[in-house]
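Reproducibility note. Readers wishing to regenerate the assembly model reported in the main text can use the exact inputs given here. Chain order matters: entities are listed in the order in which they were concatenated for prediction.
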Amino acid sequence: MIRRSLLKLANPQLLALVGVLLINWLLFPNFFRVTWQDGRFFGSLIDVLNRGAPVAILAVGMVGVIATKGVDLSVGAVMAVAGAVAATMVVAGYPAPIAVVAALVVGLLCGLWNGILVAVLDIQPIIATLVLMVAGRGIAQLITEGFIVTFNDPLLIYIGTGSFLGFPMAAVIALVLTIIVTLVVRRTAIGLFIEAVGVNRAAASLAGIRSRMLLLLVYSLSGLCAAIAGIIVAGDIRGADANNAGLWLELDAILAVVIGGTSLLGGRFSVPLAVVGALIIQAMNTGILVSGFPPEFNLIVKAGLIFIVLVIQSPLASRLAPPRLKPAAKVAAK
Amino acid sequence: MNRSLRPLLATALIFAIAYALAVMQFPSMFSTRVLGNFLTDNAFLGIAAVGMTFVILSGGIDLSVGAVIGFTGVLVAVLITWAGMHPLFAFAIAIIVAGTFGATMGLAIHYLQVPAFIVTLAGMFLARGGASVITRDSVPIYHEFYAWISDLTIRLPGGGRLSFIGLTMVAIFIVGALIAHRTKFGSYVYALGGNPVSASLMGVPVARTTVAIYTLSSVLAAISGIVFSLYTSAGYPLAAVGVELDAISAVVIGGTILTGGYGFVLGTFIGVMLLGLVQTYIIFDGTLSSWWTKIVIGILLFLFIVLQRLIFVASAPGEKAQKA
Amino acid sequence: MAETGYALEARGIVKIFGNHVALDKVDFGLKPGEVHALLGENGAGKSTLIKILTGAYQPTLGEVLVDGFPVSLNNPQHAQTYGIGTVYQEVNLLPNRSVAENLYLGHQPTRFGFVDRRKMERDSRTVLARYGLDIDPSSELGAHSVAVQQIVAIARAVELSGKVLILDEPTASLDRNEVERLFEIIADLKKSGLAVVFITHFLDQVFAIADRVTILRNGKLIDTKALDNLTRTDVVRLMLGKDIAFSGATKLEENRPLGEVLLDFKNYGRKRSVQPFNLTIHKGEVVGVAGLLGSGRTEMARIMFGADAADEGTVAVAGIQTSIARPTDAIAHGFGFCPEDRKAEGIFGDLSVRENIVIALQGKLGWFSALNRDEQLEIAGRFGEAMDIRAASLDMPVKLLSGGNQQKVILSRWLATDPAFLILDEPTRGIDVGAHAEIVRTINRLRDEGLALVVISSELDEVVAYSSRIVVMRDRELVAELNGENINPGVIVQAIANHKDGVSA
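Running the prediction on these inputs yields the following structure tokens for the assembly.
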């Protein structure tokens, strides 16, 4: 059993993450140095966890959506909306916990809206979520009345920049969320049903799975995760920037999910691997920064990364190296 | 009536009513000056939207448009200002680069059989990143050719003026409409959007058409980038962020169905003008803030998506749930 | 080359996919000026043969000849240059484009590089007039009825090829008048010397229009005959297998006591799908459903299971009136359904054998009472063993299994839900002999355990062997119910072949 779980660890995503970290170390020898200061850890590695958290959280929500053969383009905009709600409410004098809950509820509703368009009106996901992608930032600006709403609320700032047991709060939230969602998805039948709907919706319906409820659930979760990420980002800069908060992060989240091995055509998915995907992206990001390259290189490296993943996942590749498994022997009865 | 005309008529009607209401409130909006500015201010969006119309008609999507506009602006600025090239020469290089870029995306979409959005997403990262690697700052362009072109206007009665770039957009719309509606290539684009399997059985060269569509979109995005640089007299790597979303919105509001196969290039023109009208109205009003533009575009987008669903699903041939 | 008199000929065609022989040394000859019907059940090899004749597939062995000359057809466009045109069941045109464009796409007349739309529409009008269509060529194709679209497709195929016309189930979604209209057109084309291949499930239509018939079964050529000397019964017998013993009933278990009534469908039907039918099903009985493809047998199965909702009639389960509007309703009442198209509607290809087996049970249990991995393995292992599923591991993707094992997986899926009633649509089609025997054994075992089953099959001797009763479907209608003595292949063939009033032919 132990050997088996060790083997499981040696998957391409984790190897890639280790590879990227090693390259970073070669480029920047201090990369792995972690110091303890003011009751928290510091270092590039910690930075990767901290900066990677928002995309990791988005990826947790996005992975379920993509597994059902969908996509959620609106998460970046929903981040902005949630950040705006939280910031404006604390500035208006509401207690921070209420502001946070309100922001989460708004994110959930945004996700539910997408879910209704997809599941009930049967609109293609990419089109359905485009509406909020376009309008979301406008709504966020409407809430903040066009200003960058800055705040000094300790709770929000703590969510964005604080630390827990020495680790950045954002990373801790991402970790807890990953664990909760993974457990919920795998300890219930939801994960299996999501995969079944993504693989073959017609068969799923004949096997008695209620795919509509499931779609509403995954899109709502994606909205909720976006709201969490939005609150973190707002807390980090102590303000809500409706124009730039979460800009293009939906694309990073999709990329993280795809790197995590979930096909854009739906089916098998893994929440932890999507999070690893987010960390790979951030590790490259940080690596480029600390080794002195201009940050713009990032975009080019990301483009290359998408291309590689697409080639690996494409039908062309599987035709060149078809999986050969022989259906032989009888089931080993237990 | 031809059902693909219905969304177009809806757009035209909405535009007419909205414009009439705006004019009632601000009579000065009914002037050649405002109309001339309409064309000039939206020229780059309109040109990019023509390319997007072809992409969406074929059932695809191109997220790289804004980035290609930004990249072209930077490339042109750098070639002119740093390398001392003549603008026309720089334009030619930019168009060739963009054409190659679009062709590559088309090849990837066809041969890797992956969704267009993810390929063009990679394209977006590449173009944005490439532009930023060339320069991180805005590069101003000072060249007599640029000065000459911005003076090149046609005066209209009533104080308005038609600028060169405004006219360029109109010309591109006309050429685009001719290509879409009057050439074999145009009919192949619609065929792909209608049903790629049928299209291929009917002898449509699917690979060639796909590559041509994305090449066209990137070339038009490059022209749009050139126009943008004429408009701003500078190249900036973060210019035109999000223009792809405006272009998609204009196309959809202009009556092209997002799943492909139905629509008109001239509908996109009305779509662009409608977006322009929203912006102009907000400027005229003075009390409304700019973010209303996005919200209104979002609402229009939603309405048109639902409208398309109603028109095209209600009358579509029966569900394919079962086989005889 | 010798003049063979055939416009299009296939000689000794063998087509092998992986290790499945789809066509085994099939010969086929098509004369100019004839309508040649190609018949066979699903999986008989009709569509493979058509795809080879149109260049969509290349034969593994054998050759295709046009006018006596061997040719190699690379793709449908290439076949078109040899004069071979095809019209498919689902109209493969572009509903979003104009009629004229659908006629000429890829071959539009141009002037100065632009499509000469006026000439194209003028030409279209002339062409359409020849087919008796007076429609506006500039109108959207999708705005017209399926029949008109079908005629446009024929016109396109004939205009672009002109020697051979292959019609692949062109009448599947047409009503009676539309079919007649289509037949007039086919008759005209025949008169003009065109060679027509006609594929259909409707025997009436074969006798109404065809001159000769070729029958395929299990990838083998059964016979090619002129229709003049054939009766409908002959044709059905050829299609379903003439090696079945036609004398008397097979060993039918005598006077099996009927269990209590489990299901009672009264006037149950759905518009455009299946005519209202009455059917009572008892515990411990197998109701066999016989009928050719397209007779409404699958539609009947789907509305019983709620996959399509019935729009008239009532159903009672164990004497209580209820409503079955969706599969979850049916499953809650203990129904299970193995669909005909395993790949499209049955299996979850990328999921494991284990998950494929437990999914319906899990669906019944709901989101939150999940079976853990060990329970899943136990259930999958138990049913996998009972059904003798041959898989290297229960965790391998089900798509890597053979067709027969996939079918066993789907059957296991429903058995795991402890069902009271199972609907099996063609459970033994396209699977190997071993799996076939296992599934028949299982059907018998389940009946003995008191389950009610409805089994649709085109294997007559098989249906006869396990059915307590047989209902016969024809033209989307339940036309006969056979009991006791009447359960014998001869009677069934008669019931399938009979047509109501003997009008046509």
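We highlight two features of this model. Chain A is about 70% helix and 5% strand. Strands of chain A lie at 35-37, 40-42, 149-150, 163-164, 167-168, 239-240.
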